[in-house]
Specification:
The structure is a single chain. The protein is mainly α. The chain has two domains: about 5-60, Arc Repressor Mutant, subunit A (Orthogonal Bundle); about 65-135, Orthogonal Bundle (Arc Repressor Mutant, subunit A), CATH 1.10.10. The chain contains nine helices and no strands. Helix 3 (about 40-45) crosses helix 4 (about 50-60), helix 7 crosses helix 9 (about 115-135) and helix 8 crosses helix 9. It is elongated. It starts with a helix and ends with a helix.
């Protein structure tokens, strides 16, 4: 046995034992609340990117690509009411839906965590849908 074989094998096995369980709550915290990428979660936890993707899917956690596409594909009918939103909501929708920025990029631009942008966009879209429905009913 070479001088480095034993200790590194033991250390690797110990590292695997210390990897956190990829529970739904843990992944939501890392992926949505903290805005980490799949690669960043893999690095932070010691799991492979494929394993992280697998657990996101198993826990039915909506990925940013899926959710973010709803903001990129907003109907012009909704966007016509953009001026009815708060300045922050307007800036987030312009950045993401019109200019095509990602959520993390928009968050960096505003100097906030990605969850703040997600929440702003979610509320903004709900508001736009309510305004559009109200206007259609008149």
């Amino acid at each position: 046995m070479g001088s480095g074989d034993g200790p590194s094998e033991v250390r690797d096995a110990a590292d695997e034992d210390e990897r956190p369980e990829l529970t739904r709550e843990f992944l939501v915290e890392l992926y949505h609340d903290r805005g980490l990428s799949i690669a960043e979660i893999a690095t932070e936890t010691g799991w492979s990117k494929a394993t992280v993707w697998n657990w996101l899917d198993r826990h039915d956690i909506e990925t940013r690509e899926t959710k973010q596409s709803q903001f990129h594909d907003l109907d012009d009918e909704l966007l016509q009411y953009l001026d009815w939103l708060t300045p922050t909501q307007q800036a987030d929708l312009r950045g993401v839906a019109i200019e095509g920025r990602g959520i993390a990029e928009q968050a960096r631009e505003r100097g906030v965590e990605p969850i703040s942008v997600w929440q702003s966009l979610d509320v903004a879209v709900e508001r736009l849908e309510a305004i559009a429905a109200e206007q259609a009913g008149e």
